[in-house]
Automatic annotation (TrEMBL), chain A:
The organism's place on the tree of life at top rank: Bacteria
InterPro entries: Anti-sigma-K/W_factor, RskA_C
GO CC annotation terms, alphabetical: plasma membrane
Native source organism of the sequence: Paracoccus seriniphilus
Domain Anti-sigma K factor RskA C-terminal: 108-228
Protein name listed in UniProt: Anti-sigma-K factor RskA
Pfam hit, one: RskA_C
Length: 237, 173
């Protein structure tokens, strides 16, 4: 960190553009640089070039799949769905158990499913239709989780057991190439979880699925922090 | 795809989410290091994408850079709000600045630079490369770096500015 010859004016401009693009400027300096964006096209171009250059760092991050409820939350906030699909685990009197509501419930769900499913299918390549399963069981047999993959759709079902107080089981997708495991979500507290596999995750018999014991909400770093409690390869079914 | 999202095409928006959400979630998580906060931020990011898609065409960034920039800025805003610091307004405005469409030549130059970036970072001194990554991927500020290095802010700043300039020289060779 030695002091060297001062920067030339064009180097100063470049450094300023980099600092603006990366968000290191504060206060008056930040305001002045932002004002310059609309007055000085060359400077604005330098800032964009820096944004492009630096975005490569983010593209190299290991993808971490977001839980299905994130997409549902977005749809609800944008008004793309009318009713929540997620059931409230704290509800004391589940409405779907009431007989008169059952029929109406099914009708709503069917309509919602058709709405969610149809535009989805239209925009996607037809799934190859290969189906795989993996049965994840802990050594003491206390936890059983079934994973099913059909084309690009994946379902994780909790069959037996539960995460400890303040803990969650996180699901990892492990490629045979030795790259870092990719988080694809958390084992649901009950029932099953459905998701669409993100690009880059291609099911095959070489893929292993693992569960690790993590703090509630999942690993805070995006990499497994707790012990792996179960692991199994996908098998063609 | 973003053009179709701009026209209010929900299936295009869904498809965009499928292809990009795990990457943007990783960006949010890298900055925030907190699962629930990253998930909320991710939701904010896609809401902003849906609302601002019509302005995308004029900003001159490649699609993935635009998305990453939004995700990173949202996550950093949140990080700094958590530390009760003024939010990083500047970078957020930078993402909406208008420009002309980049020509094929500049697209090729950018692709070339992206390939070089990793090599250039590994060629840099570890300390410098780590600082650049900490700022971009974890939202570190000059004050954070100064604390980490045990040096005055001005020293750290001039050092990081030079690091960034040498990175640029390296990738654009």
């Amino acid at each position: 960190m030695s002091e060297e010859i001062p920067l030339t004016p064009s180097e100063e401009d470049q450094a300023l553009a980099a600092e603006l693009a990366i968000g290191l400027l504060e206060g008056d300096e930040a305001a002045a640089a932002v004002a310059r964006l609309s007055e000085d096209p060359d400077f604005a171009q330098s800032v964009r070039d820096w944004q492009e250059r630096l975005a490569t760092l983010a593209e190299d991050l290991t993808p971490v799949m977001a839980p299905a409820r994130a997409r549902q939350g977005i749809r609800e906030k944008l008004g793309h769905v009318q009713a929540p699909l997620a059931k409230d685990l704290n509800a004391t009197a589940p409405w779907w158990r009431r007989p008169f509501a059952l029929f109406a419930g099914f009708a709503t769900l069917a309509a919602l499913a058709a709405f969610l499913w149809l535009p989805d299918q239209a925009s996607r390549q037809p799934a190859p239709g290969q189906a795989y399963t993996a049965e994840l069981v802990t050594e003491d047999d206390a936890l059983r989780v079934a994973a099913r993959v059909d084309g690009r759709d994946m379902e994780i079902a909790l069959e037996d057991g539960s995460a400890g107080e303040g803990r969650d089981y996180e699901i990892w997708w492990i490629k045979p190439d030795g790259s870092a495991p990719i988080s694809i979500g958390l084992v649901p507290r009950e029932g099953s979880l459905r998701m669409t596999l993100p690009e880059g995750l291609d099911p095959s018999e070489e893929i292993q699925i693992a569960l690790s014991d993590e703090p509630e909400g999942g690993s805070p770093t995006g990499q497994a922090t707790g012990p792996v409690v179960a692991i199994a390869a996908l098998t063609n079914s | 795809m973003i053009a179709r999202v701009a026209m209010g095409d929900r299936s295009a928006f869904d498809a965009l989410y499928d292809v990009t959400s795990s990457k943007l979630h990783a960006v949010c998580l890298s900055v925030l290091k907190d699962r629930p906060e990253a998930e909320e931020t991710l939701q904010d990011v896609y809401i902003k994408v849906w609302q601002n898609a019509s302005r995308y065409a004029s900003n001159g960034l490649s699609p993935m850079t635009w998305l990453i920039t939004i995700a990173r800025n949202r996550a950093i805003d949140r990080l700094r709000a958590r530390r009760s610091r003024p939010a990083g307004m500047a970078a957020d405005l930078a993402e909406t600045v208008a420009s002309t469409e980049p020509g094929p030549e500049s697209v090729a130059i950018r692709a070339q630079e992206r390939r070089m970036l990793d090599d250039c970072l590994s060629a840099m001194a570890d300390q410098q490369a780590q600082a650049v990554r900490a700022v971009y991927l974890e939202g570190a500020t000059y004050a954070d770096l100064a604390e980490r290095e045990g040096k005055p802010i001005n020293t750290v700043r001039s050092w990081l500015r030079r690091s960034l300039l040498s990175l640029k020289d390296c990738v654009s060779q």
